Amino acid sequence: MNEQIEQFLAGEPHAVVGASADRAKYGNKVLRVYQQNDRRVYPVHPTADEVEGLKAFPNLASLPEPVHGVSVITPPPVTEKIVQEAIQLGIRHVWMQPGAESERAIKLARQSGMNVIAGGPCLLVVLGFREP
Which domains does the chain carry? Predict the structure, then answer.
């Protein structure tokens, strides 16, 4: 798992799918941990205009540039759709945060050759999230 995490974190930018303006939600905390570690990140939310001072995008296809990896904080059925979109866009790294993973999403991602992190540690622990 450590090698998978290193590969995921080796490039930039990243997208956070399920980004939230609500600071109590993990979709917000994951976005902020990227910011706290001076990493380029794009929030993805279907209806938000902005999250944590960053322009939000409705889906991965609308991002202004290709991303190295995607952190997913969505319900499992949505995660499956996100993985399908990521595959179509050629994204090679996906980190399903605890609670977002589904067997189908993991299988789809692995079959496509993606570096998949699921059922492991949360990005907040790995990068050291700090509450303000």
Answer: 2-121 (3.40.50.720)
